[in-house]
Amino acid sequence: MTPRAPLGGIGDPPKGDNMATTKTLATAIPAAKLTAAINKAVGISAKKLQLEVQPENIVHKWDLVGRVLADASLAHEFATDVTKQLKAQGIKADAATFIVNKQIIAGFIERGRIGELREL
């Protein structure tokens, strides 16, 4: 038997008046529809920003190793310095930063671990 998380832990539903009464089901999006949506969004943004972009969508699989930071203005500098320290230890790495859902992640990607680019 798997132990449950304590009350209010991960996997527990909200308690009391906060209990959700509706269900939302995840839906799958066909690749063609996703590609069309991406192309439309990219086209609008590129035109708005007067930016020339490559015509094909790509997926670049990689793993960023880093830490969550509170200050985005220092993220690149932090990632670059961490990478410099790693290179001094003989580790091949490239500085990388990633911002999603207001979380700033700064660190590095090991060069030998970078996957191949592929079209979507």
SSE order and pairing:
Elements: H1 31-49, E1 58-60, E2 65-69, H2 75-88, E3 93-100, E4 103-110, E5 117-119
How would you characterize this protein structure?
This protein has about 120 residues and is α+β, with helices and mostly antiparallel strands. The chain is about 30% helix and about 20% strand. It has helices at about 30-50, 75-90, and strands spanning about 60, 65-70, 95-100, 105-110, 115-120. The strands form 2 sheets. The protein has a 3-stranded antiparallel beta sheet with strand order 2-4-3. Strand 3 and strand 4 form a beta hairpin. The longest helix is centred in the middle third of the chain and has 19 residues, at about 30-50. The relative contact order is 0.16.
What is the N-to-C succession of helices and strands?
HEEHEEE
The number of E-state strands comes to 5
For the terminal residues, how far apart are their CA atoms?
42 Å
User: Hey, roughly how much beta strand do the residues contain?
Assistant: 15-25%
Short description:
The protein has 120 residues and is of the alpha+beta class. It is built from 2 helices and 5 strands, in the order αββαβββ.
List keywords for this structure.
3-stranded antiparallel sheet; 2 helices; disordered N terminus; elongated; two-stranded antiparallel sheet; alpha+beta; 22% strand; 120 residues
